[in-house]
Amino acid sequence: MALQKIFRAVIMGPPGSGKGTVSARITKSFGLTHLSSGNILRAHINAKTEFGLLMKSSIDQGQLVPDDVISRLILSELKAIGQCSWLLDGFPRTVSQAEALDSAYIVNTVINLNVPFQTIKDRLTSRWTHLPSGRVYNTDFNPPKVPGLDDVTGEPLVQRDDDTPETVTRRLKAYETQTEPVLEYYRSKGVLETFSGTETNKIWPDVEALLYRKLSLINQKVA
Ligand code: G5P
Ligand code: MG
Questions:
Q1: Which atom of ligand 1 is least distant from the CA of 160?
Q2: What residues does the Adenylate kinase active site lid domain cover (predicted)?
Q3: Which residue in 142, 116, 140 sits closest to 197, CA to CA?
């Protein structure tokens, strides 16, 4: 669908709920620019920047990085991509981050993936990632064509340092205490859309239908 007016969306959900997987489908179908806070942080760590090295230990321990640091980083990335429709994945993750985003942009829609914690724990131990692009695979759900290699570049896949069972438990705890209040924040603004389930393939048609509806409305307003 061609976008005539700028559309700004956020995708939320616990670690491993499928934000990256659904974002890739949204990008393909609707052409929004995808910005993942986790991918940006991991790119810094991979490039061994001073900033990345500072953030690495929090991330490896399953803790959130400081609000002011991540808010500044994401707002400057958004400024850099300019006037285009975007989908933010992994940010905001605290009410303070949501307020920082609000001070600069109006968010049109928040997609919330509500996936049970037990489903998530099983998924993350079998996730493989292509770090440079952020593409994700799963040995059960969407295995790469050649085991251990990225489909597009043929480069090696790695397992994330924060995907160990102990760290996943800590990330889920951080989600409950720090991120769940953000759902209430967006609910009270009337922009929250929740999709519940255990399988991305069953959730996806509903997400796609919602976005068709929202984007048609936006395009009609412009016409
Ligand atoms: P991230 O990178 O934002 P998380 O923890 O929010 O990390 P994560 O782990 O990237 O989220 P996801 O994107 O929600 O998960 O899920 P995914 O990768 O698409 O899917 C997970 C796995 O399940 C994949 O292998 C996929 O193929 C598979 N899968 C998908 N659907 C199905 C299905 O239907 N069935 C099956 N069997 N499998 C499926 O953040 C990382 C860290 O960075 C810091 C924090 O330290 C954070 O812990 N950080 C921030 N800190 C502060 N504030 C912020 N805003 C921060 N953002 C990042
Ligand atoms: Mg992700």
A1: 9
A2: 127-162
A3: 116
Residue 165: C-alpha distances to residues 19, 22, 114, 121 (Å): 19, 23, 20, 7
- Global ipTM: 0.98
Predicted model pTM? 0.94
CATH number of 8-115+179-222: 3.40.50.300
Catalytic residue selected from 56, 93, 123, 135: 93
Please say if 127 is a catalytic residue: yes
Q: Locate the domains of the chain by residue range.
A: 8-115+179-222
- Is 56 one of the annotated active-site residues of the chain? no
Ligand 1 pocket check: which of 74, 114, 127 to mutate, most ligand atoms within 8 Å of Cβ?
127
